[in-house]
Write a structure and sequence with these properties.
With 257 residues, this protein is an alpha+beta fold. It has helices spanning 2-14, 32-41, 55-66, 86-94, 125-130, 139-147, 174-177, 189-199, 219-223, 231-250; strands at 23-26, 46-49, 71-75, 79-81, 99-107, 117-118, 157-158, 161-162, 166-170, 203-214.
């Protein structure tokens, strides 16, 4: 709960001039005693208990179902806001009816910029980026394309997708693009959400005017392909398979999913 409290404190500090509601989604199987204790330890937020682990997309969708604002800010509990500029992002999004999703700049605890906006992956991208194939000719080019190495992360840009760990979504477009696909238990749900956004005629943009600290490291990136028994790696591989299968089905003539 320490991370949650730190995250909540950063929200209360930097969003004090914005009218907002905050929901903490308990996407775990806590006992009634533990849950009651956690509820007592927080203030300025509403704890929502899902009853069991619905996966990342399921937890996000539960939060969306409780929200009533014009914008939804999905934020991982291990993230910290560093400024009040989310208001500026909403102001700019208000000007463009087709701008649906925005991602802030994400940095680690040392303020090193993280690749929170990326190009859509290809079926072979994962192997070229995180396996022994990364040593092969052409792998560096694919990695650079996917992680957008040549992009100045201090610039506003339309991008394929932004990380779901810190994502601002215009609530009114959810009637068109829907919530996250809960068939992804973990990983790729944010990529798929942005892909669906683009396919429905809306835009996704990276806007670095606001910065979020995310000290944690993506488990599947950290471990690479060292252990196929790692649960995070298995989830990532399964989700990637679902992502590309879904993309193939969407591309079939006459399929308007």
């Amino acid at each position: 709960m320490d991370q949650v409290q730190d995250c909540l404190q950063s929200i209360q500090t930097h969003l004090s001039e914005i009218e907002y509601e905050c929901f903490i989604i308990s996407n775990s199987e806590y006992s009634e005693t533990d849950l009651a204790s956690h509820c007592k330890s927080i203030s300025g937020a509403t704890m929502v208990n899902t009853g069991n682990n619905l996966g990342y997309a399921g937890g996000v969708n539960i939060g969306i179902s409780h929200a009533s604002g014009d914008y939804i800010y999905v934020l991982n509990p291990d993230c910290l806001l560093t400024d009040s500029n989310i208001n500026q992002i909403m102001y700019e999004m208000d000007k463009e009816s087709d701008w649906a999703i925005s991602g802030p700049k994400v940095v680690d605890q040392n303020y090193n910029v993280q690749p929170s906006c990326r190009a859509f992956p290809r079926p072979w991208t994962f192997l070229m980026v995180r396996s022994i194939l990364s040593r092969f000719p052409g792998a560096a080019s694919e990695k650079g394309r996917y992680l957008m190495d040549a992009f100045d992360h201090n610039s506003l840009k339309e991008v394929d997708w932004v990380s779901g760990g810190a994502t601002l979504v215009k609530a009114e477009v959810l009637n068109v693009i829907g919530g996250m696909d809960e068939r992804y238990f973990l990983y790729m749900e944010d990529v798929d959400w942005c892909r669906g956004c683009w396919r429905k005629g809306y835009k996704v943009k990276y806007m670095p005017v606001s910065t979020v600290i995310h000290a944690g490291q993506h488990q599947s990136i950290k471990l690479g392909l060292k252990m196929f028994s790692n649960i995070h790696l298995r989830w990532h591989l399964i989700s990637m398979f679902k992502y590309f299968i879904k993309g193939s089905l969407l591309a079939l003539p006459g399929n308007n999913q």
